[in-house]
Amino acid sequence: xxxxxxxxxxxxxxxxxxxxxxxxxxxxxxxxxxxxxxxxxxxxxxxxxxxxxxxxxxxxxxxxxxxxxxxxxxxxxxxxxxxxxxxxxxxxxxxxxxxxxxxxxxxxxxxxxxxxxxxxxxxxxxxxxxxxxxxxxxxxxxxxxxxxxxxxxxxxxxxxxxxxxxxxxxxxxxxxxxxxxxxxxxxxxxxxxxxxxxxxxxxxxxxxxxxxxxxxxxxxxxxxxxxxxxxxxxxxxxxxxxxxxxxxxxxxxxxxxxxxxxxxxxxxxxxxxxxxxxxxxxxxxxxxxxxxxxxxxxxxxxxxxxxxxxxxxxxxxxxxxxxxxxxxxxxxxxxxxxxxxxxxxxxxxxxxxxxxxxxxxxxxxxxxxxxxxxxxxxxxxxxxxxxxxxxxxxxxxxxxxxxxxxxxxxxxxxxxxxxxxxxxxxxxxxxxxxxxxxxxxxxxxxxxxxxxxxxxxxxxxxxxxxxxxxxxxxxxxxxxxxxxxxxxxxxxxxxxxxxxxxxxxxxxxxxxxxxxxxxxxxxxxxxxxxxxxxxxxxxxxxxxxxxxxxxxxxxxxxxxxxxxxxxxxxxxxxxxxxxxxxxxxxxxxxxxxxxxxxxxxxxxxxxxxxxxxxxxxxxxxxxxxxxxxxxxxxxxxxxxxxxxxxxxxxxxxxxxxxxxxxxxxxxxxxxxxxxxxxxxxxxxxxxxxxxxxxxxxxxxxxxxxxxxxxxxxxxxxxxxxxxxxxxxxxxxxxxxxxxxxxxxxxxxxxxxxxxxxxxxxx
Length: 762
Ligand SMILES: [Zn+2]
Prior knowledge:
By secondary structure, the protein is of the alpha+beta class. Helix content is 19%, strand content 33%. The chain has 16 helices and 42 strands. Strands 7, 8, 9, 10, 12, 13, 15, 16, 19, 20 and 30 form an eleven-stranded antiparallel β-sheet that branches. Helix 9 (432-448) runs parallel beside helix 10. The longest helix has 17 residues, at 432-448. It is globular. The model is unreliable at 1-28 (pLDDT under 50). The chain binds zinc ion (ZN). The site of zinc ion (ZN) has 8 residues, from loops.
């Protein structure tokens, strides 16, 4: 897995912006030009265009107070001869504003007081939604001849006053949430206190800052073409939050004009991240990527939809297909394999010399055929962009010409493998060379080596390539994703339909929905790779796109991670595949419980037959979970994410392990944390026929009473109906409800899993 390194790089790659010193205090008097749709009001200072009124009318909440300093609603960064310069409205000597219609404001700045940009014109257009508490922000930048436009920061919303009990939700991977973002930003020991994220990389384009009892700030983009852009929150010198959307034009020295090809979206809401996900889903689910998602077009093969459990094992078939057959027999449901280290080369540094497989062609083919007889299918790891720079093929095939070039004109190399210290370079998706290479590797894997799919590591992200000879726009843009689509089309064109091959990818991303059958959302087990920190995983992506995607994956393991036999022997652990300490068993249960209630296909990492007896309780929990889920696919595979009804859940402090496949060197690959986590997990899903399924999983050692009480109207359910319990054995009637009142009293025994089903009376 490469994601950590890469995403951390993105964070480090933050654009150093200078907080504006030219500010204007906001006020609410008639010096403002105001638009108001009965839901929100926005007002701009008539003298300089500063955003001075930002009011949630429905919730009587003002985002600014009399001390808020909001400053310029935009910043522009130019570069010339490698030197960057950031300007804002304070450089403009002429400003005008107009209101072409009651819901729209146009702001214009010109006559800039610097000779080289004296002809520059900046025009912003802000309009309110007809019905919703949303506004749309567009900007044009004109006449910057002789300069390169690096980024346009717009909208820039500064001076956001503290909400109180505040949370920040971000769709980083499947999603994450932070309590007290101001406090955490203030603790950053740097002059610039900022969180910045790149999209794609963010799985969709919406962030939410809110106090669930008061008001929420909704920031999004309605870009249906997935241009690369960044989103950031920073803390300014006045301790107020500043939100920015970083629009990143492709570098084009001949261009002197830029207009955002989409709008920034700013709005308000009352609720939490699920409310924000609902606002975004209203837009996202109407886009091409949802309509054309593989699952909605019935292009995902039945075997994928029927997969009850994934086994994620590594190395030769004996260590992968044999354990998978063991657990399949115990489970009695379809088990398939997510297969790493099958390839001939050493992990990370030998890519893309994948074939022949390390155990030899004959052995591999016969093992895969044997697994097929048992109904076990395999998808194999192939990184979709890395090439080892010390491989023979790197030189022989002149791969460097087709690698991603950075802004400085160099090829970035990165060492993931700390044992071999050999580097890798990212190949440019925009080149036909790399698409041909990867498509031919996929052709070999599926047609020659008879596997059932390819897992494309590092998939749901986009890189910026500055090579002017690759035939794509230079730097940012939307070409990476477009070319990813071409690559998957090319792969599929070479593979007969009857093979029912799938393409899986790392991470999740709205724009990849038409291209990938399956998405790996490992953040469900984030603690295993990131420990316990201020960010907590939330199923934000599933909340928006569950019914348009199939997500799977989990680092959840009862063994210490394996060591690749092709890595240097001197660093190998003395006892491979050692049992993890039992104190981490509950973490395993927690990770599995999350994936169950969050609507993912369950996965166990590093499964061995001995675990069925030596960690019986944990394996039984997993089997029970897979069976229960299999009886509730209407909800847990195909359902739409809903907010849970309120109920009390106990919490407990537990031991958490962080482990890395690259830690064998010291002989100690496990770090221990303590963390407090819920003991009952829940997820609520609505089926196409409007029936409701509430998944519950207890990881407590004690009995836990669960009292669900809610009104049928909250979920558009009929006024009366029946209540069932779905578990590993099937479905049984629990009772009925009338007069809109649904009340369910349950006692969950230790390790209990079920889905409470509420249906119309039929
Ligand atoms: Zn390129």
